[in-house]
Amino acid sequence: MIMYLLVMSGFFAFISARKHTLNMLLSLEFIMLGLVVGLANMFINFEINSYFILYFLTFAACEGALGLSIVVAMIRTHGSDFFYSFNILLC
């Protein structure tokens, strides 16, 4: 039940706060946290080895670090982290 609440509130935050890139990344990390809680609950209930959770957490941490580096690069080049001011077609 908590997993569904975490994931749905993360989706709601992702949809409603699309102005800043950092807010979008935080809501994506919140969704990942809900998925980790759900996977841990599933592995505990079915008594399965939980090595997959470690891989999932590793990829989530790499995704967070990569997103933060993209935000820092956006702020250095464009001066802000507004999502709509970033145009991929401009070099």
From TrEMBL:
It is a multi-pass membrane protein. The keyword NAD applies. It comes from the Eukaryota. One of its GO terms (cellular component) is membrane. GO terms for molecular function: NADH dehydrogenase (ubiquinone) activity. It holds the Pfam family Oxidored_q2. Keywords: Membrane, Mitochondrion, NAD, Translocase, Transmembrane, Transmembrane helix. InterPro entries: NUOK/Mnh_C1-like (IPR039428). It catalyses: a ubiquinone + NADH + 5 H(+)(in) = a ubiquinol + NAD(+) + 4 H(+)(out). The keyword Mitochondrion applies. The chain crosses the membrane at residues 27-44, 51-75. It is found in: Membrane. Belongs to the complex I subunit 4L family. This is NADH-ubiquinone oxidoreductase chain 4L.
